Every structure is written in C-alpha cells, then in structure tokens.
Amino acid sequence: MVELREITKENYEECLQLDIAESQKDFVSSTVHSLAQAWVYYDTAFPFAIYANNTMVGFRNCRKITAAIASGKSPEIQ
Q1: 26 assigned to some structural domain
Q2: Which domain holds residue 47?
C-alpha cells in the first residue's frame, strides 16, 4: 500500500536520508531545502513522506493556496 504521512519529529531524520535520482536533480529541490522551506512557510507548507509498504520511499511538499499567494503578494516556495 502507498500512503502519505506527515513529516514529524519521529521520521524527519529518515526523510533527510532520501536521495534524489540523478535524472531528477535539475527539477526538484533537495529534501533538506524543501523541509527548510516548510519550516519557514509553516502556515502554508505541508511536507509529507511517501511510504510504500511502511517503507519511506519519497517526499512531497504540498502548499496551501491562500489569497495572498494567488494574488502574487506572497513569496512562492521554489
């Protein structure tokens, strides 16, 4: 089974150990960078670990779209 789980104090170190495939490095930020952004933008960024059969296999940073973001008056997570 594949599922998303919140990044917590119990699993963040495992998340930091994830490697980005060489073919993806030009397209995605490092996990360290993404988790730092989630911390800075804590009110709109929501990091999740991707698990397959209870093994962490990936990471996804989701963003809540607010009126300020939609209007261009808030910095974007890049």
Answers
A1: yes
A2: 2-70
Query: Which residues, at least 6 apart from 35, have a Cβ–Cβ distance to it below 8 Å?
Result: 7, 12, 15, 16, 47, 61
Residues 6+ apart with CB under 8 A from 50: 2, 3, 4, 56, 57, 58, 59, 60
Q: How many domains are contained in the chain? A: 1
Task: Supply φ then ψ for residue 73, to 5 degrees.
Answer: -95, 10
pLDDT for 21-77, tens place per residue? 899 889 988 889 999 999 998 888 899 999 999 999 999 988 877 666 566 665 554
Name 38's Cβ contacts closer than 8 Å, sequence gap at least 6. Answer: 7, 45, 46, 47, 61
Q: pTM above the 0.85 mark?
A: no
- Residue 77 counted as domain residue: no
